[in-house]
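hey so i finaly got around to running the thing on DUF4189 domain-containing protein from Lysobacter yananisis. pasting the sequence first so u can double check i didnt mess up the copy paste, my clipboard has been acting weird all day
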Amino acid sequence: MKFKFHAVALTLLLPIAATAGTITVSGHGQSYDPGIAMADARADAASKCAAQGGTPVKEVYSHVTRANLWLADSIWSCEVP
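ok and heres what it spat out for the 3d tokens, dont ask me to read them lol
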């Protein structure tokens, strides 16, 4: 009987544990200044992570390109509960 109780409890907790993990979010920014474009891209990625209830862990990739404006991309890994 005790084994059955533990099996039921584990079955109920398993979906909660399975949903916790790391996701990847990306942010984009543009400006006439490359530093501002990158800051905007990082802030955009951090806000997308926070919108999902997560915490930004580290930046995986970033890139700045010159067009008429500076275009920046930032990709972050985000730990979500």
